[in-house]
């Protein structure tokens, strides 16, 4: 097999032709980890259900997931950068693209791709070729990815490589077998007779092994995890973010997936994945509880500072967009313009909003809600 740019193929693992879906060999090893992961997810989901509006409270976590998942693929940005792009996008999409680093825009597009997939599933679409290609088209719609055939499956062999040591780690399925592989994957994902956490574990590995796109496979593959859990009813909303665990254990993440193809160690991969779900569910629960507590604390602070019937509207807007232009606040919060302007001045004076950019000419001021950003960054 011809290697790209002289990379060493000696340690490469080949795709596991004809071996998906595998038969789990030792359920006795899996029962307890499966029970623990299921219980941890249930506790997290109960927390989601108790939130008065989880879409508002967990919006910054979706942006943080985009940052971490993208960083695993070498696209480095920060939460603050991504939220700033979201604020600019509220003003004008072209300006948002033009003033930001391309890497930060790519991370921002992860959130938009996830939102598109979520909306499609809400409208009844199955998890399918169409769904992931649509999400991929958004994900790679700008910057470097725009030259990597957005929304189109690969037509040439691709590889997973250790660029530092110039070694090929994994050779995904060949393009001529990809359509059959994708059909088998989606049949398996839709098989309700298979336990959902194990099904999600194996589907995630298989998607990464198929590596159907020229670029963006890891990010799309990690998107599929909450979408599968949500569609199956395991979580009530698709707000479960696991990339942080995978990044902190990246070497094991890669090694376990390679071992499944190399030696049939599918059970070991499932155990790793269940540990990831359990640990991340605990961490996500802790973070969600802190955000909910902050919301309740800020509700009282905002009432004392603003003393208005629009207090909750202001609070909800700022939790959803912790970095925002003043013009968006006045036009999108539903608060009358003069009142909204007064609110931002009062919140800045109280130290709850930080001015990132002062108003200049026709360009409105840019603010950051530091209490929430400090919590999510940590």
TrEMBL record:
InterPro entries: Fic/DOC_N (IPR025758), Fido (IPR003812), Fido-like_dom_sf (IPR036597), Fido_containing (IPR040198), SoFic-like (IPR026287)
Protein name as annotated: Cell filamentation protein Fic
Binding positions (ATP): 73, 211, 215-222, 253
Active site: 211
Pfam family, one: Fic
Residue ranges of every copy of the Fido domain listed in the record: 127-275
A GO molecular-function descriptor: ATP binding
Domain of life, source organism: Bacteria
Keyword Nucleotide-binding assigned: yes
Coiled-coil regions, chain positions: none
SUPFAM superfamilies: Fic-like
Keywords: ATP-binding, Nucleotide-binding
């Amino acid at each position: 097999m011809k290697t790209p740019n002289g990379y060493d193929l000696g340690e490469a693992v080949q795709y596991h032709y004809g071996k998906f879906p595998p038969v789990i060999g030792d359920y006795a090893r899996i029962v307890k980890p499966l029970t623990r992961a299921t219980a941890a997810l249930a506790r997290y989901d109960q927390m989601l259900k108790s939130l008065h509006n989880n879409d508002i409270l967990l919006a910054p976590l979706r942006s943080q997931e985009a940052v971490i998942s993208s960083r695993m693929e070498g696209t480095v940005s920060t939460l603050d950068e991504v939220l700033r792009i979201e604020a600019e996008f509220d003003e004008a999409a072209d300006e948002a693209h033009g003033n930001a680093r391309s890497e930060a825009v790519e991370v921002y597009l992860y959130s938009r791709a996830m939102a598109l997939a979520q909306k499609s599933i809400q409208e009844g679409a199955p998890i399918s070729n169409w769904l992931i290609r649509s999400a991929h088209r958004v994900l790679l719609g700008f910057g470097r990815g725009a030259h990597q055939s957005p929304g189109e499956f690969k037509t040439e062999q691709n590889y997973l490589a250790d660029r530092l040591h110039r070694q090929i780690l994994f050779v995904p399925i060949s393009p001529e077998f990809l359509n059959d592989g994708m059909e088998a994957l989606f049949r398996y994902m839709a098989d309700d007779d298979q336990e959902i956490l194990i099904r999600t574990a194996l589907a995630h590995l298989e998607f990464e092994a198929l590596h159907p796109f020229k670029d963006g496979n890891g990010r799309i593959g990690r998107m599929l995890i909450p979408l599968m859990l949500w569609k199956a009813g395991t979580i009530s909303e698709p707000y479960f973010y696991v990339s942080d665990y995978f990044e902190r254990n990246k070497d094991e993440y890669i090694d376990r997936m390679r071992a499944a193809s190399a030696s049939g160690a599918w059970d070991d991969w499932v155990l790793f994945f269940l540990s990831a779900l359990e640990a991340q569910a605990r961490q996500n629960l802790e973070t969600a509880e802190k955000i909910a507590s902050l919301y309740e604390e800020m509700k009282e602070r905002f009432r004392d500072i603003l003393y208005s019937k629009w207090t909750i509207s202001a609070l909800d807007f700022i939790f959803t967009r912790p970095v925002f232009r003043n013009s968006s606040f006045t036009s999108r919060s539903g608060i009358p313009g003069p009142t909204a302007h007064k609110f931002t001045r009062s919140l800045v004076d109280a130290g709850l909003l930080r001015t990132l950019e002062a108003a200049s000419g026709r360009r409105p001021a840019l603010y950051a809600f530091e209490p929430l950003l400090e919590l999510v960054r940590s």
